[in-house]
Specification:
Number of helices: 2
Order of helices and strands: HEEEEEH
Distance between the termini: 46 Å
Number of strands: 5
Helix content: 10-25%
Structural class: alpha+beta
Largest sheet: 5 strands, antiparallel
Length: 182
């Protein structure tokens, strides 16, 4: 039996890996992400971004899958988040520093991931029709300020993001083997 894994061992390992994945805690501190184009500069920063496990009452804790949908609850918290979006001139210099779209804000996203979104038939009196994933964003106060120049910059940023995603998709399609048509 050199290296073979039994069904019981395989099931236990899968269960243990799932518990580890549900309970991984991630913290990303003091990050600045800057994107520069020939028309604008966008900068997003935060002091702390944390991903924690929680129970169905949204208390941070070591958690297991819950209920017939085998739901996992995650909390994503961000502190001191800021987003600046400024136009640039033909030399690439910021011509005017706009008020940040949001500045030093705090919010929490609550995420529910369901492994069995329709529930387990043996435990539920019918399909639950729940989504696989659900996102709630919670904040006591979150202020967004936007000038007409920033609305234009945001539209340009979205256009560039869309073009970037299209390039990635095209590159992926070009790598796929040709399919026979029948």
């Amino acid at each position: 039996a050199g290296g073979a894994v039994s069904k019981e061992e395989s099931g236990w390992m899968r269960w243990m890996l799932a518990r580890i994945m549900v309970n991984i805690r991630v913290e990303v501190k003091n990050v600045v992400i800057k994107y520069c184009s020939d028309r604008f500069v966008s900068s997003i920063s935060w002091r702390l971004l944390a991903v924690d496990s929680a129970n169905s009452s949204w208390e941070r804790m070591f958690a297991d899958f819950e209920g017939p949908t085998r739901a996992a609850f995650k909390m994503v918290s961000i502190e001191d988040a800021s987003w600046c979006l400024d136009g640039v001139d033909e030399r690439g210099q910021i011509r005017f520093f706009e008020t940040p779209l949001f500045n030093r804000e705090r919010a929490t996203a609550r995420v529910i991931l369901r492994a069995v979104p329709d529930g387990l038939a043996s435990q539920c009196p019918g399909p639950l029709q729940l989504p696989i994933a659900q996102l709630d964003i919670v904040s006591e106060r979150f202020c967004i300020t936007m000038s007409d120049r920033q609305v234009e910059g945001l539209a340009l940023l979205m256009t560039e993001i869309d073009a970037f995603v299209d390039r990635i998709k095209a590159k992926k399609r070009s790598r796929e083997p040709a399919r026979a048509v029948s």
